[in-house]
Amino acid sequence: MSDTTPEVAGPVVRPRRLRTTPALRRMVGETSVEARQLVLPLFVREGIDEPRPIASMPGVVQHSRSSLLRAVAEAAELGLGGVMLFGIPATKDAVGSGAIDPAGVLNLAITDVVAEVGDALTVMSDLCLDEFTDHGHCGLLTPDGRVDNDRTLAAYAQMALAQAHAGVDMVGPSGMMDGQVAVVRAALDAGEHTDISILAYSAKYASAFFGPFREAVDSSLQGDRRTYQQDPGNAREGLREVLLDVAQGADLVMVKPALAYLDVIRRVRDSVDVPVAAYNVSGEYSMLEAAAARGWIDREPAILEMLTSIRRAGADVILTYWAAEAARLLAR
Ligand code: PBG
User: Fold this and answer.
1) Tens of pLDDT along 161-188?
2) What is the per-residue pLDDT for 8?
3) Are the beta carbons of 44 and 105 closer than 8 angstroms?
4) What are phi and psi of 35, to 5 degrees?
5) Which domain holds residue 171?
6) Where does ligand 1 bind, in terms of residues with CB under 6 Å?
7) Integer CA distances (angstroms), 195 to 158, 234, 251, 282, 284, in order
8) How much distance in Å is there from the Cα of 210 to the middle of ligand 1?
9) Which has the closest alpha carbon to 317: 35, 120, 124, 125?
10) Which of 193, 228, 285, 287 could be bridged to 321 by S-S, CB 3.0 to 4.6 A?
11) Which residue minimizes the CA distance to atom 10 of ligand 1?
12) Which pathway is it part of (predicted)?
């Protein structure tokens, strides 16, 4: 034995043995990503005939009513878990009337989509006012410009009923108002919509990674959302928000964004029994796309690695702009 070879007590322990062949690696793999776990967020814009590209999200568009239907038919074909719909109205006002109007763009889109795909997909809708308000906040404002929690709750209750009448399967309250899950649940139940489920955006952080989304929905927001979305450093508080939402009747809870909050996803997964969703947000999408466009990163394996990391952290369901593409990659 040479001086440089360390002495070992027994045979070398060889984890590499399980990495010998693709078949063996596949068999012992701990984490999988499946099409059924992926939800595709889709934007529909009032008053356009052709889809419009979103410059900061290459490959993602604002749909017209008809191009939206092609996208959801494809999502169903690919076996995705669902779609999450966001509406961009032609006109906005201080109270976000377009969100409640039965003829508002989102409510019409829900009806169209349900007619197109039936039960093949879970049809979800964003339940928040920011796409509909001219000030861009997720709620109604007080005369001095603060977001009024309880008046906003009343608007969310009406919005929930409008989406229910349109035929939605699941609503996604995303405005981070206190008590929003309880109010939405009560409104749905009082309207005999006990089967409509709630995906609560429970631990939602005031994140720079939402940047490209603001272009996607033509947001008019000035300032920030720090009085309602959470401070990025707060994991324990994220768990508190999750537990409150579960107590109020959330059927699923969500952590958002995903990548910078994998530890929060893990804590939540270990603390509740409901399914946990994570939102792989616009900025996470765009930064990978931008690097890939420059040839700095190998796009397809990077997409799958990101989604795998979110699953490994504990997410049961992932909202991702790559849902359709990932389903195609996973099928080959
Ligand atoms: C609020 C909402 C936002 C996102 C989803 N729902 C924006 C925000 O809170 O500012 C962001 C999604 C993304 O960045 O992909 N309606």
Assistant:
1) 999 999 999 999 999 999 999 999 999 9
2) 67
3) yes
4) -55, -40
5) 31-330
6) 126, 128, 130, 138, 174, 210, 213, 225, 281-282
7) 17, 33, 11, 30, 33
8) 6
9) 35
10) 285
11) 210
12) Porphyrin-containing compound metabolism; protoporphyrin-IX biosynthesis; coproporphyrinogen-III from 5-aminolevulinate: step 1/4
Quote the pTM value.
0.96
Separation of alpha carbons 317 and 324, rounded Å: 14
Q: Is 204 a catalytic residue?
A: yes
Determine the distance separating the centroid of ligand 1 and the alpha carbon of 203, expressed in angstroms.
Answer: 13
Q: In terms of residues, how long is the chain?
A: 332
Cα-flanking dihedrals φ and ψ of residue 288, to 5°? -70, -45
Cα-to-centroid distance, 138 and ligand 1 (Å):
10
Q: How far is CA 5 from CA 8, 12, 17, 174, in A?
A: 9, 12, 21, 59
Tokens 């930064």 identify what position? 287
Asked whether residue 2 is assigned to any structural domain, the reply reads no
Q: Is residue 259 part of a domain?
A: yes
In the predicted model, residues of the chain with pLDDT beneath 70 are 1-6, 8
Q: What is the pLDDT of residues 242-275, one digit of tens each?
A: 999 999 999 999 999 999 999 999 999 999 999 9
Question: Could you tell me which of 212, 201, 170 has the C-alpha nearest to residue 264?
Answer: 201
DSSP character for 18?
Answer: G
Residue in the block written with tokens 């669902």: 82
Q: How many domains does the chain have?
A: 1
Q: What is the pLDDT of residue 3?
A: 60
Does 190 map to a domain?
yes
What is the full DSSP assignment across 301-322? HHHHHHHHHHHHHT-SEEEETT
Q: What pLDDT, on a 0 to 100 scale, did the predictor assign at position 315?
A: 99
Query: For this structure, is 92 an active site residue?
Result: no
For position 9, what pLDDT does the model report?
82
* Residue 271, domain CATH: 3.20.20.70
